[in-house]
Amino acid sequence: MPARLQIQAKDCSPLGLLILQYLEEHHISMNRLAEMADIPQPRLRGACFKGTCPTPETLRKLSKVMGMHHLELYTLAYEGRIVKRPEDADDYLDSLIRELFETAREMDLVPPKQRPSKARIERALRELGFAHQDERQVEKIRTLRSL
């Protein structure tokens, strides 16, 4: 049984909350997780707190041990620090990225080793319902005419 953590959830960033959850679910200590990820324990502990900036290397090492893509951890670590677009973006982009990775994990899919081409990304986005602004305008006009 791991020692009781001295880190409180109220002091944690979204990444920190995920780390605490992982420790609890796997019944391991923070020292053990740091050892498994080859990260100094103080660095791992520091990554848990609000306002900290874990290095990409720390996130990559941690992601391997936790069985997650490092971009998922990066999104959690820097949540709230990314300047949001003024138009209705709110948490849309963050939730979209999380949903993609969560769905892939549920389907036992792993991220591609190489970045997909722009053409493949565009095809996938269109299948998800993305469209050019002009196409949206035409669609709205057709809808209004049919009423």
From TrEMBL:
GO terms of molecular function: DNA binding
Pfam families attached to this UniProt entry: HTH_3
Annotated coiled-coil segments of the chain: none
Location of the HTH cro/C1-type domain: 18-73
Protein name: Helix-turn-helix transcriptional regulator
